[in-house]
Structure formats: C-alpha cells, structure tokens
Specification:
Blueprint: H1 8-18, H2 45-65, H3 74-84, H4 90-114, H5 130-143, H6 158-176, H7 186-195, H8 208-214, E1 221-226, E2 235-242, E3 246-252, E4 257-263, E5 267-271
Antiparallel strand pairs: 1-2, 1-5, 2-3, 3-4
Length: 274
C-alpha cells in the first residue's frame, strides 16, 4: 500500500501535448460519442479538473480512510505519518471505517446513476477518457481491499461493475500493444534524466502578472509544496518558468541540473526562507 496520485492537472495535459492524437497515439480527451468532431477535439479543462478535485481530493482520501491500517507494518505507518504531518491514529481509523464505507457506497451510487443511460464511458465519449482512467484507478484499488470488497456487488451496482470490468479490459488491451519498459537502476535513470534535452522554458513562459500576485520573480529561489499533505517536504530551486497552469524550477541534483515541473493547482509556491 502507498499513497500515490492520478495523472492530475499537469501530467495528463503534458502527455497530450507532447504526444498529440495520431496514428500512433490515441487521446485521453476523446470527442463526445455523438459529435462529428475529430478525435481529441474536446479540450480537457473540466475533465482535468474532475480528475483533480473529485478523484484526487474526494475519492482518494476516502480510499485512504478505509485502508486496513492495523495490518500495516509499523515502518509504513511511521513513514505515512511523516508525509501527512500528523500521527496516524489506528483506533480512530478503525472506528470511522463503517462511516467511510457507507460514504463509499454513496459515491458508487453516483457512478451507477451516471451510467444509467447505457453509456459506455463515464463522459459518454467515443473512447476511454481521462475521466474513466482516473476513477477506475481508485476503484480498482478499492475493489481489492478486504475492507470494502463487499461493496462491489453486481446486484447493487451492475452498471458500475460492468464499467469497471470494461475499463480494465481496455487498459489491458492497450498495454498489450506497448513494448514492456526496460528496468533501470536509480543511478542509470538519474544520468539519463540529467543528460536528456529539456523543453525550452518559453513553452511554459513567465507570467509577470501571476508572479506579482504570488510575490515571486524570475530567477528567485523558491520552494514548492503540495497544499494537502507532504507540506513539510518542499522542493527548493530557482524559478525559471511560471504560468497559470504550471511552474518550473531548476534544481541541482547529485548527478546534475534537473528541471522540476509542478501544476499550479494543488501546489503552493513562495520565496524560500533565507
């Protein structure tokens, strides 16, 4: 078990931009099913927002609350407590689990209602979209947990279960078309990253209006941290790009200079303390 994140408000749009729809690459923002537009014509603003503010900020904490924490190794509990910035009370999690399971059931009902018009995908698109991927990731995880496995009852949520299986099958089929990734050591990966060409900073640009609002400037040493958990572990670096959707820091790593990209949504940037 571990905390992780979905594609979120930066990775998904960046992948779409760097690998636009083509004969080789599909899209995570397919057009509505009954439209005559080209694939990928539907932009992902609200879809991306959904993956962040519903999937990441609502469903993900709910999944965390039903984890079988009492069965976790002490080292894992300690590590997650440091990330959260507060102690993990095992008794409190256990006491609150029935309420969380009930709430989980309510969210499954929302999905069942969304699928009640016989649509194939959640956003009624021509193909699998980021909406499906982001929700499926968490529900497929929850489905394997003994604490909530009983919720995934085909007699109560037949459309949701069928949709889950459909997305799983689609992802499996897509994986089968890909070359398996090579395994690299940490040292090799670090060398490849620092030696690879990086995207020019002007792709993100520097929005002076937003910089003024945030109290930062081009070239400032700043720190960036999530706005939910992990706040005690900011990334420090030189601010080299800033827009309304993204910011970039230059960070000196053990193997060389890195460019760390962060979404604006879900992260806080401020001048680093001297």
């Amino acid at each position: 078990m571990m905390f992780t994140a979905t594609l979120g408000p930066l990775i998904a749009p960046t992948l779409e931009r760097r690998f636009p729809p083509s004969a080789r690459h599909g899209t995570i923002y397919p057009a509505p099913k009954h439209s005559e537009g080209a694939e990928g014509a539907t932009k992902g603003g609200l879809v991306t927002a959904f993956s962040k503010f519903y999937t990441d900020n609502v469903l993900f904490p709910l999944i965390v609350s039903v984890l079988p924490w009492e069965a976790s190794p002490p080292a894992f509990i300690e590590d997650r407590a440091k990330l959260l910035g507060r102690p993990i009370n095992l008794e409190q999690f256990a006491e609150g689990r029935p309420s969380s399971i009930s709430l989980f059931s309510s969210h499954l009902l929302l999905l069942e209602e969304q699928l009640s018009d016989s649509r194939e995908w959640l956003s009624d698109t021509k193909a699998l979209s980021l909406t499906d991927i982001s929700v499926h990731f968490l529900l497929a995880w929850g489905r394997r947990m003994p604490t909530v496995a009983s919720l995934f009852d085909e007699s109560r949520f037949p459309l949701t279960i069928a949709w889950l299986d459909r997305v799983s099958a689609a992802i499996t089929a897509l994986k089968a078309t890909q070359t398996p990734p090579s395994k690299l050591s940490g040292e090799t990966a670090a060398r490849k990253i620092v030696s690879a060409p990086h995207e020019p900073y002007d792709v993100v640009g520097f929005d002076t209006i937003e910089a003024t609002r945030l109290g930062v400037g081009l070239g400032d040493t700043v720190q960036v941290a999530p706005d939910d958990y992990g706040k005690d572990y900011p990334t420090n670096g030189k601010l080299v790009a800033l827009s309304r959707s993204e910011l970039t820091l230059e960070v000196q790593g053990s193997e060389g200079l890195l460019r760390c990209h962060f979404p604006r949504l879900g992260y806080v940037v401020k001048r680093a303390s001297v």
